[in-house]
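Predict the 3D structure for this chain.
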Amino acid sequence: MEKYLYFCKGATDGLYNVAHDVAVYPVSRFRGFTNQSTTQTELSMLFEPMEGEVGDADGGGDDVCDVVVLTITSDKHKEVISSILAAIDAPKISGTGKSLITIADVMNSEFLSIDPDSAGVAVAISGVAITVQAGASA
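Done. Predicted structure below.
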């Protein structure tokens, strides 16, 4: 069975009552990491759209991604990327059902553990924003 990445941005009322409060992506749909803005505390994870092909400027539907933006310790992109990749690469333990990797669950204050940097400075994920692209209309 494939591994899945879990993200929950949470809600102020404690309910999952807004579209895309939660997103779970199969690892096979992960495209990569980037910093899409100039902030030093955001790291974006790009995924193939979960709601189907999305139209784009050239009509191919392949240039658009769902984006999960992680709030991280300032300027610690490499450390966070390394920890996420290690979690993805870690072998599953037979019989545990450990196919779900929690990256950021704001609602339950559960975040992937990140090792301190080389100077011993704590590094963490502290928040998440999820943008799911709407599928193209038929």
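The first strand starts at residue 4 and ends at 8.
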